[in-house]
């Protein structure tokens, strides 16, 4: 009788929020074939307001990757998604200049928690793209289905980009 009452609830669905404020777009529209051809996985992207300086966690989870050049980070969600937030295009070439990590690998983060400070004005002046792709790098496992939000102005940590469901 009490078996179901005390069973551990398993997460079946998660919402992935915008990690930065700006204009959302489909990942297929990112001007870089690594993202637009979904080589890294399914996802969306946000072109940030250049006055924005803080990138936040798009989902609750654990930080599993911080690029040594500070241009990208990865979070594993409770559903098992491995979400990569890649800040700008060709920004690896900046060798960390214009970026400041606010977390470390192994940290648990919550939606909206600041993860990185970014100087988008500096990035833009270096001739690098400022679009921020948000992709699920383990979509090849075919464990998830996605419902994409409408393209619109989004607010960091508040606007849902997509919903993932465990198949």
UniProtKB/TrEMBL annotation:
Domain PTS EIIA type-1: 32-138
UniProt keywords, alphabetically: Kinase, Phosphotransferase system, Sugar transport, Transferase, Transport
EC number in record: 2.7.1.-
Entry GO CC: cytoplasm
One of the GO BP terms on file: phosphoenolpyruvate-dependent sugar phosphotransferase system
Molecular function terms from GO: kinase activity
Subcellular location: Cytoplasm
InterPro entries: Dup_hybrid_motif, PTS_EIIA_1_perm, PTS_EIIA_component
This protein's record includes keyword Kinase: yes
SUPFAM superfamilies: Duplicated hybrid motif
Keyword check for Oxidoreductase: no
Chief location of this protein within or outside the cell: cytoplasm
Root EC class: transferase
Protein name (database record): PTS system, glucose-specific IIC component
Organism of provenance: Sporolactobacillus inulinus
